[in-house]
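Quick one - first record:
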Amino acid sequence: MSKNKSIICPSCGKENNPNSKFCFECGTKLVKENTPVQKAARTKKETTANTKVVSTAFLMGLIILLLAFSGFLLVISGQFDSPAPVQINNDNSQVNQTDSFAESHGGADLKTLQRIKELEDAVEKNPADLESLVNLAHLLNDNGFYKKAIGYYQKYISKRPKDADVLIDMGVCYFELEDYDKAIQTMEKAVSINPEHQIGNFNLGIVNYSAGNTEKAKYWWKKAIDIDPNSKIGQKAKELLENNN
């Protein structure tokens, strides 16, 4: 009997005819283990089991990776720190208002103090010199002299009450002094003048968030996103909104 056509009895080891259902030696029921259908079924079963193991391991790894990535995003987006408003420099460029020079260096340097004195003298000699007036306010703001900056901003606003940029900067000073009510009031006035002022809308979200008004903060961040979702401010507002939902 040819071995490649025979069925080996699993009980006694005897060879049997390929068509035999029972071992002619011991009577054990014979199973055709090597038929294509059974092999395919067994392979499918084994593959399914292996797939489950791989899938579970993959999901666990993915979860760990996502958690780590989420933590990284929180760190780089500043969610572990208090967010700060955005301030407009004299050239109208957008920068993040973080620690002021005065806070990080203990005060302005001599060159800056000299420039402040020059501008103060110019304003005193010519109160109508609004350019020197606003530049003085900006310089004081940039270097942490928030109370003095507010005083000069107010003088400027009394002459040009519709300058939304200056109102936002003055609002930043109030924010730095933790006077959130006046910061919100001043910035809301700015966006009422210019509803499309993206930095103003964004900053109102920051100030309200700092004051504990989370829902109001979300409202202003949404408005900032609607103005221009692709700008840096729009992207930052989107990150803050997603991280606080």
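second record:
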Amino acid sequence: MSTALYRKWRSQTFGEVVGQEHVTRTLQNALRDGRVAHAYLFSGPRGTGKTSTARILAKALNCSAPEGERPCNQCPTCQAITEGRMIDLIEIDAASNNSVDDVRELRDKVGFRPSEGRFKIYIIDEVHMLSGSAFNALLKTLEEPPPHTRFILATTEPHKIPATVISRCQRFDFRRIPAPEIAEHLNHIAGEEGFSAESDALLTIARNAQGCMRDAISLLDQMLSFGADRVTMAQVKQALGAVNTQAVVDFVGAIAAREAGQGLALIHKLTTDGASLTEFSHQVVEQLRAVMVLQMTNDPALLDDLPAETVQQMQQQARQMDLPTTLYAIKRFSTAVNELKGGFQPQLPLEMALIEVVQGEAAAPTIVTATAPYAAARSAGVSASQDAAKPAPIPSAPTATNATAKSEPVALDAETARRLWSRWKEYLAVVKTQCGQQAAAALQAVRDVAVTDHAVALAFGSNEFSRNLIAKPDVLPDVAAALSKFFGT
């Protein structure tokens, strides 16, 4: 029976651990200087090498080779650990052995000297699953272990581990492995297995793994099982339910251009072709996230795991969209992913998300106070006749203190509203200078304005993020002052 690739290609030396040089280098220096701690805590996302590194450290501590060559993977001790038959290496799964009795049994055996090697090594995986009483039972042993014993605790959720336990360990945080490094390692594995692979296919696998090497190797194993001698982008797309990258770019481009019809046509084609709408939504969110990064930093180097042509298209979209729209789109399409559960019209959540981002929800837009006397105007029923692309503000419910205003509608100044809207970009430039870039970016989301003698109403559609930003007590007065100065009134 064949061995799964992720087991066959498990790292056996510090040099084979991918993407965790900050950990392996420190451990190698500690081994060289004879400063190995009695307890370590390896924390980080799954599939990033925590358990593999723990086993390599166990080998190095018990290897019989010269100091600079440990672990050698040739001596009987190294081979026993590799084959899983080293009796002095005790691996415990805390998810199924998490009671205080399990830890007491461990504590009773700690005092016995190792049978084969120099050290007895305890690797406790998913240690955060231990009960509170089990942690208390382990605490004393961690604090004063026998000189021949070493503990290595591994977890994906270090925040669940008591501080008293963490303080008795040397902690190493494993990071998500960058996609280019995963792709490079996958290419090496494919070559050693006698296969070739398209670079874009490997990079797509790496990005889909989201920093988890184990997931990436498992997916590569699936690709190699297709029967062909070359891993292609078409195979990867079929396995992932992924959509052509250009379709995602075009969809985000439709959002940036506010072309709902174009976006709906793309969704229809994907549905007809049988593509995975869930995977497509994930890719859309990933693309929007990249656009957001460019808008905030203007640094394409942060997207080095993407093709240069794709980054250029994203830069164009970053210039087309304002930041609040991008943020709202990320939020809305992330929600749509959870709503894609099938049903009579499985594409409907995605279509609704698109329309709400491009045109705004059909619900009443939020009105934000721009000057102090605005409350009376809002309760009086501020409205304006505008075209369909810019729906008029809908008044909020009147309050008891504004009963008089309700019966006496405030006259609108349509001409001033028109002038303000026509010079909106000029006003945003003033806001950027006087109030900062963040306020100016939020005001780009305004969909309509209404003006009375003493008040201005701003409608943000469904964009609560931008509305709430402008409504902050430390932002609103400055925005209102900038507006007064702009109009000289």
